[in-house]
Backbone:
């Protein structure tokens, strides 16, 4: 017999009303505005844009406020919103060589054209709590120095000239899009990069860290890490030419990895690549390590059974919206499922106890 | 359309798309009479990157974009694709795109495009100058064994 059960509407309504009140918190404390979140919690906004896979700082700020600062919940809200938007087309690939950089460092070359530019970084801070921030106050203006606004060349270009690093095959093939077709494995590198770019920062970080600890080691150096603004151009069909439709901040990481060579390739350095919305350098570095680890088959390396080399393991578990959906659904009513389990365990127990008694 | 006007049009369409909606509204408060060829529509554009910065394209993620197309009473048509979800921004950009192609163009260049461009240049120069101040100047220390 199947009995449908209904109920809980009133409880749910009241729970949501209470949630709204708790979200607001103590009303004697000023309410957060969206511009405050966008400007002062910019790195949280960046993470929500990157993993929500939708670049819109105002929407990300709204999602963070609505989610009470739960970033995975905020990412979920952004993903849900983006499904309501019609797709107007695809941009031309962004040209990161023309990025207006605010940060650009290389761990492989000390002196390089364009220099080592630290930018607004947490590096070299002492990680001591700054109690001055607990009080309101004026911030001293950042120093300025003359500059020529020239494009900053990619570090891998220098290695490329000597044939010391693998050449990245160019082209303009239409890339696969996992928001349009279900992800199929084995995945192309383009599809993997899309999945990792929107994957959970914590998961990608741990995968990358595991390669550093020896599970699929790739001997990575950060050839270059750059953060800055790029123009986004799009071909407009009704005009017949491309125009800039906006600009966005991106973080790009290129790793240079040791490679002994294979039957077809001489010993040379290989590449891992990371590109992420916003100022998100931990994610971009991790992304390039995981990208490189997943390239073992293409480069003729051994599969050592490391999780970071396992495409299915990485790609099917990187998405925190999918993960949280499946994880958290088990808290929802499973009364009927559980009832049948309960009956099964009762029967097995009574059978086992009966068998025990018979044996005695 | 000649290459020269196409280049000019690309230039102002990009500038209008990158401008802050509130600033554009200050500079260009009153819209001319127009009919929509495409009513303002908010959507998403898939932004592509290239593998290794130079290789095959891949899908990085989407951005919000609002587009609009309109015709003025004079018959001039204007198009806009602007970042974000501000419909008024897209309508203003499309109306300006149309007007800039008419004889009013030079006047609007001076009153709207010139200040927008100057403000953008200042904003970019300021960030570049702050970045330049964080450029590392290495120097070599004199080591004991060399003496």
Residues:
């Amino acid at each position: 017999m199947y009995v449908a059960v209904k109920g809980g509407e009133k409880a749910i309504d009241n729970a949501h009303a209470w949630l709204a009140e708790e979200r607001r918190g103590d009303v004697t404390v000023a309410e957060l505005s969206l511009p405050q979140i966008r400007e002062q919690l910019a790195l949280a906004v960046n993470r929500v844009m990157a993993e929500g896979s939708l670049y819109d700082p105002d929407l990300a700020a709204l999602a963070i406020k609505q989610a009470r600062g739960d970033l995975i919940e905020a990412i979920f809200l952004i993903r849900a919103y983006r499904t309501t938007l019609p797709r107007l087309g695809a941009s031309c690939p962004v040209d990161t060589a023309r990025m207006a950089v605010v940060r650009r460092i290389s761990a492989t070359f000390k002196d390089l054209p364009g220099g080592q530019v630290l930018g607004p970084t947490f590096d070299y801070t002492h990680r001591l709590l700054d109690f001055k921030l607990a009080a309101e106050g004026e911030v001293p203006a950042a120093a300025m120095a003359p500059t020529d606004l020239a494009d900053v060349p990619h570090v891998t270009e220098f290695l490329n000239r000597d044939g010391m690093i693998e050449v990245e095959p160019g082209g303009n093939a239409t890339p696969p899009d996992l928001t349009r077709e279900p992800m199929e494995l084995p995945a192309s590198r383009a599809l993997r990069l899309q999945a990792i770019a929107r994957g959970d920062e914590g998961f990608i970080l741990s995968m990358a860290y595991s390669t550093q600890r020896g599970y699929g080691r790739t001997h990575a150096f950060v050839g270059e890490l750059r953060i800055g603004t790029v123009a986004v151009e799009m071909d407009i069909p009704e005009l017949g030419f491309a125009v800039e439709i906006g600009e966005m901040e991106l973080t790009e990481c290129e790793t240079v990895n040791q490679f002994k060579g294979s039957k077809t390739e001489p010993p040379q350095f290989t590449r891992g690549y990371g590109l992420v919305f916003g100022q998100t350098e931990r994610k971009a570095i991790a992304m390039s390590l995981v990208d490189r680890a997943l390239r073992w088959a293409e480069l003729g390396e051994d599969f050592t059974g490391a999780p970071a080399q396992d495409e299915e393991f990485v790609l099917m578990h990187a998405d925190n919206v999918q993960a949280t959906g499946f994880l958290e659904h088990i808290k929802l009513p499973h009364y009927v499922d559980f009832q049948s389990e309960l009956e099964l365990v009762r029967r097995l127990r009574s059978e086992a106890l009966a068998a025990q008694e018979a044996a005695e | 359309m000649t290459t020269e006007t196409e280049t000019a049009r690309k230039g102002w369409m990009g500038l209008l798309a990158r401008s802050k909606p509130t600033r554009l509204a200050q500079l260009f408060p009153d819209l001319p009479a127009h009919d929509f060829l495409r009513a303002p529509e908010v959507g998403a554009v898939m932004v592509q990157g290239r593998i290794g910065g130079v290789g095959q394209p891949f899908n990085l993620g989407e951005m919000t974009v609002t587009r609009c197309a309109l015709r003025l009473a004079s018959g001039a048509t204007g198009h806009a694709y602007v970042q974000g979800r501000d419909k008024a921004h897209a309508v203003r950009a499309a109306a300006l795109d149309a007007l800039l192609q008419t004889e009013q163009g030079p006047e609007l260049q001076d009153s709207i495009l010139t200040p927008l461009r100057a403000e953008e240049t200042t904003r970019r120069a300021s960030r570049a100058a702050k970045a330049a101040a964080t450029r590392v100047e290495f120097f070599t220390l004199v080591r004991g064994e060399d003496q």
Chain A touches chain B through 84 residues (CB under 8 Å). Chain A has two domains: 10-82, 96-120+149-167+181-324.
